[in-house]
Amino acid sequence: MIVVTLLGGLGNQMFQYAFGRHLAIKNKSRLVVDLSMLLARNPEIDYTFREFELDVFNVSFSNFNDVRNTFGYRLARKLKQVTYLNEDGKPFDPALLQIKGDAHLIGYWQTEKYFAEVSDVLRNDFTFKIPPGPGSQHVIDAIVHSNAVAIHFRRGDYVSLPSASIHGVCSPDYYRQAMAYIEANVVNPHYFIFSDDIPWVKANITFPGQHTFVEGNDGKKSFEDLRLMSLCKHNIIANSSFSWWGAWLNANKRKIVVAPKAWFRDPSVNASDLIPETWIRI
């Protein structure tokens, strides 16, 4: 079996599932998710508590709690037949795709290189279980009838936690340059604006043309923003795994995706494999 320890929010969980799904397919094994670290509630200062969020999709897996004490898994551990892979901030390693037998993955695995071979499977897995609500359907109707560009502003804990010194946020200048690129390459773009801090966006960002603020999809409804971003024709993403997946799930074969060159404020963090080669980096 392939066990994946889930960490972080929805976008991070999608990366972790994707790598595990790929390995499970390669090894003709079952995928198991471990929620123990995700649902831990240790009083850490620099940590945002998360919930299991993959259940909005048509994903397929077993729960680690149901298998960890089975005879087969306990025997494999005792005989040291389980390979433990801890990413620990290391860049993409193609050798990990050759792992055979039982494995337990702990990390973020933020590059499509870990799952590009099963893209079609994942696009099917990452379809939504439930139809859009009335508010989202109204936005979808507008998206379908325009040259829709999703533009995402991630703030929240990127601003409030001490780890902001590592992550940082994308600057207004990045968004100005990104929109200038869109204006030069897309006829009559209509910007659909997504953020966990819409008031900040309204106060600090000027949009060059038609634009719509998408509001109300917070908390347990945040996945609706991911759905809507994926339906736009083009994407300007933040340094966020959430909007990364919104762009990746965009099925437009002619899509333009603009991403920040500096994914982390801390230049020592290696994110060289994170952005697909066909995306524009500014």
UniProtKB/TrEMBL annotation:
Q: From what organism does this protein derive?
A: Hufsiella ginkgonis
GO biological process: what's one of them? carbohydrate metabolic process
Q: Mind telling me which Pfam families this protein's record contains?
A: Glyco_transf_11
Record's Gene Ontology CC terms? membrane
Q: Does the keyword Transferase apply?
A: yes
What keywords are assigned to this protein? Answer: Glycosyltransferase, Transferase
By its UniProt entry, which InterPro entries does this protein fall under? Glyco_trans_11
Protein origin, superkingdom: Bacteria
Instruction: Cite the GO molecular-function annotations of the record.
Output: galactoside 2-alpha-L-fucosyltransferase activity
What protein name applies here? Alpha-1,2-fucosyltransferase
Under PANTHER family, the record lists:
GALACTOSIDE 2-L-FUCOSYLTRANSFERASE, L-FUCOSYLTRANSFERASE
